[in-house]
Amino acid sequence: MSEKLGFWRTYLFSTDHKTIAKQYFTLGLLWAIVGGLTAYLMRWQLAFPDTEVPGWGFIAPDFYNMLVTMHGTILVFFVAMPILLATFGNFLIPLMIGARDMAFPRLNMLSFWVFALASLVLLISFFVPGGAASAGWTGYPPLSAKADYTGVGWGINLWILALALEFISFLMGGINFLTTTINLRAPGMTFFRLPLIIWMQITAAVLFMLSVGPLIAGAVMLLMDRTLGTTFYLPEGGGEPLLWQHLFWFFGHPEVYVILLPGLGMVLETMPAFSRKPIFGYRPIIYSTIAAGILSFIVWAHHQFISGMDPRLAMPFSITTIIISVPFALIVFAMIATLWRASIHFSTPMLFALGTLSVFILGGLTGIFNGSAPIDIYIHDTYFVVAHFHYTLFSATFFAGFAGITYWFPKMFGRMMNETLGKIHFWLTFIFFNATFIPMHFVGLGGMMRRIANPMEYEFLKSLQPVNEFITVCAILLLISQIPFVVNFLWSMIRGSVAERNPWQANTLEWSAPSPPPHGNFETIPVVYRSPYEYSSPEATEDWLPQDRPLTPSAAARQ
Amino acid sequence: MLNWFPENISTFGGEIDSLFYLILYITGAWFIATEGLIVFFLIRFRRRQGSKAAYLPGETLRQASWILVPCVVVLVLDLWIDFRGAAVWAKVKGGMPPSDLRIQVTAKQFNWEIVYPGPDGKLGTADDLLMENELHVPAGKVVHVVLKSKDVIHSFFLPNLRLKQDIVPGREIEAWFEATKPGKYEIPCAELCGFGHSGMNGWLHVHTADDYAKWVREQWPSEK
Question: What's A34's domain CATH number?
Answer without folding.
Answer: 1.20.210.10
